[in-house]
Please model this.
Amino acid sequence: MFGSHAATALALVDSYGALAVFVVFALEGALVGKVLPARTLFVAAVVAVGVEAVAVLPVFAAAVIGATVGQSAIFAAVRRFDVDPTSLPLVPVGDGGLDGAGRWFDRWGLPAVAASNAVPGTRGWLAVPTANASSVSAPRFAAASLVGSAAYVGALAAIGVAVALGFGGALGLLGAEALATLAAL
Model:
Protein backbone atom coordinates (compact mmCIF):
# COMPACT_ATOMS: atom_id res chain seq x y z
CA MET A 1 0.00 0.00 0.00
CA PHE A 2 2.76 2.46 0.89
CA GLY A 3 4.52 1.58 -2.37
CA SER A 4 1.59 2.64 -4.52
CA HIS A 5 1.19 5.92 -2.61
CA ALA A 6 4.91 6.63 -2.90
CA ALA A 7 4.89 5.86 -6.63
CA THR A 8 1.88 8.12 -7.17
CA ALA A 9 3.51 10.86 -5.08
CA LEU A 10 6.75 10.67 -7.05
CA ALA A 11 4.83 10.77 -10.34
CA LEU A 12 2.93 13.88 -9.20
CA VAL A 13 6.12 15.60 -8.07
CA ASP A 14 7.88 14.65 -11.29
CA SER A 15 5.04 16.04 -13.41
CA TYR A 16 3.91 19.07 -11.41
CA GLY A 17 6.68 19.81 -8.89
CA ALA A 18 5.88 21.98 -5.89
CA LEU A 19 2.42 22.74 -7.32
CA ALA A 20 1.36 19.16 -6.52
CA VAL A 21 2.58 19.61 -2.95
CA PHE A 22 0.68 22.91 -2.67
CA VAL A 23 -2.61 21.40 -3.90
CA VAL A 24 -2.46 18.32 -1.65
CA PHE A 25 -1.59 20.39 1.43
CA ALA A 26 -4.32 22.93 0.62
CA LEU A 27 -6.85 20.09 0.43
CA GLU A 28 -5.56 18.64 3.68
CA GLY A 29 -5.75 22.10 5.30
CA ALA A 30 -9.32 22.50 4.07
CA LEU A 31 -10.22 19.23 5.80
CA VAL A 32 -11.60 17.70 2.61
CA GLY A 33 -10.02 14.35 3.22
CA LYS A 34 -6.93 12.67 2.00
CA VAL A 35 -6.75 12.63 -1.77
CA LEU A 36 -3.20 11.42 -1.30
CA PRO A 37 -1.42 11.31 2.04
CA ALA A 38 0.28 14.69 2.32
CA ARG A 39 3.15 13.33 4.41
CA THR A 40 3.98 10.70 1.79
CA LEU A 41 3.88 13.26 -0.99
CA PHE A 42 6.09 15.69 0.89
CA VAL A 43 8.72 13.12 1.85
CA ALA A 44 8.71 11.77 -1.72
CA ALA A 45 9.15 15.32 -3.03
CA VAL A 46 12.13 15.93 -0.74
CA VAL A 47 13.68 12.64 -1.80
CA ALA A 48 13.08 13.55 -5.45
CA VAL A 49 14.60 17.05 -5.26
CA GLY A 50 17.54 16.13 -3.07
CA VAL A 51 18.88 17.29 0.25
CA GLU A 52 20.18 20.74 -0.68
CA ALA A 53 18.31 23.54 1.09
CA VAL A 54 17.84 25.45 -2.18
CA ALA A 55 16.04 22.45 -3.69
CA VAL A 56 13.92 21.69 -0.62
CA LEU A 57 12.85 25.30 0.07
CA PRO A 58 10.23 25.56 -2.74
CA VAL A 59 8.68 22.24 -1.66
CA PHE A 60 8.69 23.40 1.99
CA ALA A 61 7.10 26.75 1.06
CA ALA A 62 4.46 25.07 -1.13
CA ALA A 63 3.43 22.75 1.72
CA VAL A 64 3.27 25.47 4.38
CA ILE A 65 1.46 27.97 2.19
CA GLY A 66 -0.90 25.29 0.84
CA ALA A 67 -1.89 24.16 4.34
CA THR A 68 -2.38 27.76 5.45
CA VAL A 69 -4.51 28.60 2.40
CA GLY A 70 -6.68 25.50 2.95
CA GLN A 71 -7.21 26.22 6.64
CA SER A 72 -7.89 29.90 5.95
CA ALA A 73 -10.50 28.88 3.37
CA ILE A 74 -12.30 26.73 5.95
CA PHE A 75 -12.04 29.53 8.51
CA ALA A 76 -13.55 32.03 6.05
CA ALA A 77 -16.26 29.62 4.87
CA VAL A 78 -17.39 28.96 8.44
CA ARG A 79 -17.16 32.59 9.52
CA ARG A 80 -18.70 34.31 6.48
CA PHE A 81 -21.03 31.73 4.99
CA ASP A 82 -21.93 29.62 8.04
CA VAL A 83 -20.68 26.47 6.31
CA ASP A 84 -20.61 23.29 8.39
CA PRO A 85 -17.71 21.26 6.96
CA THR A 86 -18.38 18.38 9.34
CA SER A 87 -21.63 17.68 7.49
CA LEU A 88 -19.63 16.63 4.44
CA PRO A 89 -18.64 12.95 4.21
CA LEU A 90 -15.14 13.95 2.99
CA VAL A 91 -14.32 15.75 6.25
CA PRO A 92 -12.89 13.28 8.78
CA VAL A 93 -13.77 15.36 11.87
CA GLY A 94 -16.74 14.43 14.02
CA ASP A 95 -18.64 16.49 16.56
CA GLY A 96 -16.61 15.00 19.40
CA GLY A 97 -13.38 16.12 17.77
CA LEU A 98 -14.75 19.63 17.31
CA ASP A 99 -15.91 19.82 20.92
CA GLY A 100 -12.46 18.86 22.16
CA ALA A 101 -10.82 21.30 19.75
CA GLY A 102 -13.17 24.05 20.91
CA ARG A 103 -12.26 23.44 24.57
CA TRP A 104 -8.58 23.47 23.66
CA PHE A 105 -9.00 26.81 21.87
CA ASP A 106 -11.02 28.25 24.77
CA ARG A 107 -8.21 27.39 27.16
CA TRP A 108 -5.14 28.30 25.10
CA GLY A 109 -6.30 30.68 22.35
CA LEU A 110 -4.28 31.18 19.17
CA PRO A 111 -1.23 29.22 20.43
CA ALA A 112 -3.55 26.19 20.37
CA VAL A 113 -4.06 26.74 16.64
CA ALA A 114 -0.29 26.71 16.05
CA ALA A 115 0.24 23.71 18.35
CA SER A 116 -2.55 21.68 16.77
CA ASN A 117 -1.11 22.33 13.31
CA ALA A 118 2.23 20.94 14.41
CA VAL A 119 0.69 17.62 15.46
CA PRO A 120 -0.34 14.97 12.92
CA GLY A 121 -3.96 13.98 13.30
CA THR A 122 -5.17 17.30 14.71
CA ARG A 123 -4.05 19.57 11.89
CA GLY A 124 -6.74 22.05 10.90
CA TRP A 125 -9.35 20.99 13.46
CA LEU A 126 -9.29 24.33 15.24
CA ALA A 127 -10.34 26.28 12.14
CA VAL A 128 -14.02 25.52 12.71
CA PRO A 129 -14.35 26.27 16.45
CA THR A 130 -12.08 29.31 16.12
CA ALA A 131 -14.27 30.75 13.37
CA ASN A 132 -17.51 29.87 15.18
CA ALA A 133 -16.82 30.94 18.73
CA SER A 134 -14.20 33.66 18.73
CA SER A 135 -13.44 37.14 17.56
CA VAL A 136 -10.06 36.14 16.12
CA SER A 137 -9.41 37.91 12.85
CA ALA A 138 -8.65 35.94 9.69
CA PRO A 139 -5.07 37.31 9.43
CA ARG A 140 -4.30 36.35 13.03
CA PHE A 141 -5.74 32.88 12.46
CA ALA A 142 -3.68 32.52 9.26
CA ALA A 143 -0.50 33.58 11.10
CA ALA A 144 -1.06 30.98 13.84
CA SER A 145 -1.84 28.37 11.19
CA LEU A 146 1.34 29.27 9.31
CA VAL A 147 3.53 28.92 12.42
CA GLY A 148 2.17 25.47 13.25
CA SER A 149 2.31 24.29 9.66
CA ALA A 150 5.93 25.46 9.36
CA ALA A 151 6.85 23.38 12.44
CA TYR A 152 5.03 20.33 11.07
CA VAL A 153 6.51 20.62 7.58
CA GLY A 154 9.95 21.29 9.06
CA ALA A 155 9.77 17.96 10.88
CA LEU A 156 8.64 16.28 7.65
CA ALA A 157 11.55 17.91 5.80
CA ALA A 158 13.97 16.46 8.33
CA ILE A 159 12.44 13.02 7.76
CA GLY A 160 12.64 13.49 3.98
CA VAL A 161 16.28 14.52 4.16
CA ALA A 162 17.06 11.54 6.40
CA VAL A 163 15.33 9.21 3.93
CA ALA A 164 17.14 10.81 0.99
CA LEU A 165 20.49 10.49 2.74
CA GLY A 166 19.63 6.92 3.68
CA PHE A 167 18.87 6.09 0.05
CA GLY A 168 22.05 7.83 -1.05
CA GLY A 169 24.12 5.91 1.46
CA ALA A 170 22.52 2.62 0.48
CA LEU A 171 23.00 3.33 -3.21
CA GLY A 172 26.61 4.30 -2.59
CA LEU A 173 27.21 0.86 -1.10
CA LEU A 174 25.87 -0.75 -4.27
CA GLY A 175 28.62 0.70 -6.42
CA ALA A 176 28.77 2.58 -9.73
CA GLU A 177 27.47 -0.32 -11.84
CA ALA A 178 24.29 -0.68 -9.76
CA LEU A 179 23.76 3.10 -9.87
CA ALA A 180 24.06 3.10 -13.67
CA THR A 181 21.52 0.27 -13.88
CA LEU A 182 19.09 2.11 -11.63
CA ALA A 183 19.55 5.34 -13.61
CA ALA A 184 18.72 3.49 -16.84
CA LEU A 185 15.38 2.37 -15.37
Remarks:
- Residues 2-184 form one domain.
- The mean pLDDT is 76.
- The radius of gyration is 18 Å.
- The chain has one domain: 2-184.
